[in-house]
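Dear V.,

Thank you for sending over the compound details. I've combined the ligand you provided, S-adenosylmethionine, with the protein sequence from our construct and run the structure prediction for the complex. I'm sharing the raw inputs here so there's no ambiguity about protonation or stereochemistry in the SMILES, which I know was a concern on your side last time.
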Amino acid sequence: MGVDLSYGMLAAARTDAPLVQADVLRLPVPDQRADGATCGFALRNLADLGLFFDELARVVRPGGRIGLLEVARPRNPVMRWGHGIYFGRVVPKIGALLSDGAAYRYLPQSVAYLPEPPALVAMLRAAGFADAERHELNGGISQLLLATRDR
Ligand SMILES: C[S@@+](CC[C@H](N)C(=O)[O-])C[C@H]1O[C@@H](n2cnc3c(N)ncnc32)[C@H](O)[C@@H]1O
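Below is the predicted structure of the protein with S-adenosylmethionine bound, written out as structure tokens.
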């Protein structure tokens, strides 16, 4: 099943999976019922990331897997500088031309809400995903958090 707060996002989804308009901080799923969970580019939008990780730990069965994809800032100083200009200035301008300008101004700002990588992994481990690990993708402009629910 797919979950999003926004009806518009669900209506645009191309999937046969059942879709539910709900808050991922209070998933409409019984304890340990899910074999796994994925999340694409929503972590930095959540009001309480720790609560989301706790909620994942509640619904995913022991041994179940999670994969959380999110934007990131590259560690390499040159990449970080170039990415800052592209993501902070170019993307909002292109977004404003093609779509909702406010949404694309919020995009770079929202990255500031993400904890630093070690803190992010530590939060997942504390929530009940002891083997949590973080992978950098695309030269560090995105990140993938992978973990198994503790048995
Ligand atoms: C950048 S979009 C990513 C959408 C989609 N996952 C994708 O990868 O194309 C972030 C999504 O998170 C949703 N979202 C934000 N906070 C949420 C919450 N508390 N519960 C459920 N969805 C939420 C937003 O409605 C938005 O659709």
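A first observation: The helical segments are 7-12, 49-59, 77-98, 101-110, 117-127.

Warm regards,
I. M.
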